[in-house]
Amino acid sequence: MRPELWRRVEELCQKALDLDESRRVEFLHSACGNDDELRQEVKGLLAYGKKAEQFIESPALEVAGKILATQAPSEKWKSLIGSTVSHYRVIEKLGGGGMGVVYKAEDIDLGRFVALKFLPDDVAHDPQSLSRFQREAKAASALNHPNIVTIYELGHLNGTHYIAMEMICGETLRALISSGPLPFRQAIAIATQIADALAKAHETGLVHRDLKPENLMVAHDGNAKILDFGLAKLRDHSVDPERSTQANLLTDPGTVMGTVGYMSPEQANGDDVDFRSDQFSFGAVLYEMINGHPAFQGRGRAEIMAAIVRDQPQPSVNVPAPAPFFWILQKCLAKDANQRYSSTRDLARDLATVRDLRIDPETRYAVRTPSNMPVQRTAFIGREREVANLRQLLSRGDVRLVTLTGPGGIGKTRLAVQVVTEMSAGFTGGVCFVSLSAVSGKESAIRAIAQAIGLREMPGQSSQESLKEYVSGLTQPLLLLLDNFEHLLSAASDVAELLTFNSNLRVMVTSQALLHTYGEHELPVPALAAPDLRSVPQAPEALSRFAAVALFLERAKAVKHDFTLTKENATAVATICSRLDGLPLAIELAASRVKVLSPTAMLTRLESSLNLLTGGARDLPVRQQTLRGTVNWSYSLLNAAEQSLVRRLSVFTGGCTLEAVEAVCDTKGDLAIDVLDGMSSMVDKSLIQQIEQPDVEPRFLMLSTIREYALERLVESGEEFATRRAHAAYYIVLAEECGEDLSTHPEWLERFDLEHQNFRDALEFLIRTSDADWSMRLGAALFNFWETREHFAEGRAFLERLLHLPGTVQPKMRARLLFCTAVLASSQGNFDSAQKLHEESLKVCRDLQDHRGVAVALNALGVTTRDRGDLDTACSLFEQCVATWRELGSPTDTARALSNLANVVRLQGNYARAHALYDECLAVFHDVGDSTAVAWTLNYLGDLVAESVDWVASRSYYEQSLSAFRQLGDGWGIASALCDLATLSAAQSKHDEAERLYGESIRIFQDLEHKRGIARVLECFAVSAAAQCRPEQSLRLAGTAAALRQRIGGPLIPAEQSRLEKKLETARNMLTNAAGLEAWSSGWEMSLDEALQEVLGTKSPPAKS
Amino acid sequence: MIELPSSHEVTRLLKAWGAGDEQALEKLTPLVYRQLHQIAQRYMGGERSGHTLQTTALVNEAYLRLVDCGQVNWQDRAHFFAISANLMRRILIDFARSRGYLKRGGAFSHIPLEEAPSVCEDADVNLVALDDALNALAAVDERKSKVVELRFFAGLSVEETAEVLRVSSDTVIRDWRLAKLWLLRELSRGEASHEA
């Protein structure tokens, strides 16, 4: 609440409270006037008047005492806390379940904390089973496995039995998963440790019998531990199971339900159990870890147990795990123990294999080896010693991080780029230039690095994680050049961390300050050598050996071709270079003025300018004063119009085009100079750089040192706001005009990439100045760019900020932004958020009576629901969508919605209805003359009738579809139809024909660089190989396809995935689990080229036996 | 039975805790728990009549034990009250949390009905939710949250609270009554959002 409002609310509340209740309403009415918000607030508080009389009037200690009184289950433990049991001082209760209450206690003798578990009396009453439990618990503990909790002692005192065990600082798995599923990586890391511990226990004949999330602890460092080995046996043998469950139910219903839910079928049936029962329970835990809900559910004990014996768990939805993970899960959860692993060691090994699956960076990131060093247009002068030093440092294996330090304008970047470009051949993993000058904040820095390398955003993975994974997987040396790091020193530890992942990574940094991390090598970049003014050599040749003078000459010649060093100007030039402290940037700025100023005239003016400045800012280091003075001098030489231009140019970051300059710097036509002339003049004077690249409009870039100066001048001039607004306006127009069609105009997409930082800055400015209208327009217009370029996290973060902007918003715009945010959320794999956002967008559209918006939202919601696997809801949503379009009288949209509906109906298995729906679509598309849609509908009809094994009809539909696509010249459609025809042949066991058609199809997809299509055909090849008894090849290709899908972030929807898995089951059944896993993993690691060669060219001979 | 720290020791521990030593909390906890158990025992023994003199006296005793006021000067006394209020809050909230109180939504999921004795009305204050609400109040009006902390968690009287906060007793009374309304509304919001 705003402080002013709260003050007002409080004042009125207090006044009202002083009044008699009957007079309050009247008082509020007169006091609040028209301010409804205020009245509501005050009324809302006063409503609690009655309740407040008793509220918190007794002290908290008493309230807590009552809680204790009402909760104490028995006299025994009431006095336990604070007391001493044997040599343990009981400190606090940690938790409790059917198997006893656990306390944290201090071992007084050894001075360490332990967990003390007191066994319930009924459990410990049978001495025989107690000693059996003691033996087993000790044996498990004696395994001395890092993932089994260590038992220190089993003791008893006055008839109470307790276990003293290792105290683990962490949480139970139950607590970890209570807020939802674990990320796959975390889940598999935990699972592998547990499986390893189980394997070890099973090898010595120990069975746990009661694995469940409550019995698994995860320490804060990620180490997982199994608790309570052997304890279940105690219960099994000591009391009648039925009664014990009843007893448990009374004390802790949650635990019992939990326990029942992780029983194996043989346990549920009351049969004998062995180690394979643990595998089943482990599978149930694993399932819950990744899905966030139990594998077996029911309304009571009996229902749950029935489900365990009878039902398969619901398929896992939206779990980004590789297929073999589900094979392992499936094997663990087999109802028949004989179908599970014959050795838990194999289970542990298979899990470890899946955990270690890594995507080879070269194949995962379709990005070619990064190589984006900026091309330098001017000659590199001097610096022989620094170049040699740097080369020597970089060639040393132990040097991983080199920081080039020095003040702005000293030439750090130029030196770094020069050396990296020269040495790039040695970095076979690539060289990558990351410009950080416009980046602020640690996260953005990490993101900028990931983007510069060309990493794709993966669902459920932060840029940091992607980057770590990429670096960990490097097999060739890669050099990152992080340029202008000084304002991001807080990210230094992240850079240092990255270096620890892989010795193939080298980092070079340019920064005004050191990173101060371990292993950093500093290379201070000195100024260029300049003549000593006390003994200036007279001979021009001798002078030009000074790097500073050579640079002056070089740049001077660039603007005045006949400029040479003569006896007349030598002293002046030498003095200028010396006076400018050998600072390259300052020398360049000066030299570029030789066209109008002779060196002598230049020196005079420069001197006075520098003296003037040093008078004012003595606290700046000398070089910085010099540079600033030179920039200031150069600026002062400009005419007023040019000065305006330079100032206004400072709002651009990451460069700009001439068109942008015209729009932003001369919005009102008040610039008294032609923009083109002005820009050429700025380039001549080295105040901006012109970057030319083939096929791209030239861009203009301002060095950050000069930009900072120009920005100061802009602020001073009072034009900052207007210029930034013009900048924002220009980028809104650009985004709105070109944003829609990025997918069809690759050149626009590239332009957007170049303008990325300008877009960001414009949006930040609009948000900062609370310009809801413009910022939302820009956000909505950039959506397409974010989506196409997969900047999901960035886009979503911006959109969410926009949605939370204060002030009233056009509901229509709000609906649009909600829609955009939802799409990005679902691209990130966050379907829950996506659904909520779509629902909200739907509601807004409904309120607005925007039927078109309603229809669009219904469709999006339908797609999200379908992708989550909820076909019934999806079906109903699409039905509503169809109805809405019909009402709107839009045949094409109606037909599209019908097609989506038909697809879901088909997935539900209602083929007759799906057929009717597709026929309806076909008729509409024919009527409106949408040939592409007709071709696709024919294709879908082919799919549909193929499912009812009507090969003839299916072939006919596919052939019609193929010829329609051929007429349209639609490569994607052609490839798709060919693939379908091939599948049809395969289904009829015409394998040679099938593989020929698949080959044709995949070649077209390859030409189109259509990765999703390639993945699909590879999957078809895999199925075909399975049908021809080539199981290894089948699974290998499936692995390659899966890796490709992961790489492009285009997983199969769950229904499709399970269909594929079913078809591949033949192949898996022909191999042992381990062999299948090995084949699949080798495919996952294989490059796409190899896989394509395998299916197209040197196909392995059929291994029919 | 463990030995309770001497009052001198308590003073030292409190100081240490105030200065950020978390281990001091561990040593002070048993002291508070002992008082808790004594109160609980009286309830178990049938004294369920709400605000009995005995329990109130007991509560006061607990605070007096914590802060040996005689040993410190006025400046420190106020400071110690503030620290001990904060400490009580921390210990009691941890306690409530360990007893299965959820952040939102109130009562126990744990106790079987037949075991729960009839409890007087104010016992259903959800301490954990109250703690959250109090944090929210602090963001709006810090002094009111302090008044609640001192009065409810440290059991200070109006006058003592006024002394610690260096305001008039009247201000404490007015802060107290408004804070209660605010907290009740905040708590009901929490429940509503939990149900939604």
Provide the gyration radius of chain B in Å.
17 Å
Oligomer: heterodimer
State the end-to-end distance of chain A. 78 Å
Could you tell me how far the N terminus lies from the C terminus of chain B, measured between alpha carbons in angstroms?
A: 47 Å
Shape of chain B: globular
**Averaged pLDDT of chain B, please?**
67
What's the SSE pattern of chain B? HHHHHHHH
| Order of adjacent strands in the largest pleated sheet of chain A | 1-2-3-4-6-5
Number of helices of chain B: 8
Largest interface: A-B, 49 and 66 residues
Descriptive report:
The complex is a heterodimer of chains A (1105) and B (196). Chain A has 1105 residues and is of the alpha+beta class. In chain A, a hairpin with a 4-residue loop joins strand 3 (100-107) and strand 4. Chain A starts with a helix and ends in a 9-residue tail after the last helix. The radius of gyration of chain A is 36 Å and the shape is globular. In chain A, the strands form four sheets. Chain A has a six-stranded antiparallel beta sheet, with helices on one face. Chain B contains eight helices and no strands. With 196 residues, chain B is mainly alpha-helical. Chain B is globular and about 40 Å long. The N and C termini of chain B lie far apart (47 Å). The longest helix of chain B is centred in the C-terminal third of the chain and has 27 residues, at 169-195. Chain B is 69% helix and 0% strand. The chains are: A alpha+beta (1105), B mainly alpha (196). At the A-B interface, helix 1, helix 3, helix 4, helix 5 and strand 2 of A face helix 2, helix 3, helix 4, helix 5 and helix 6 of B.
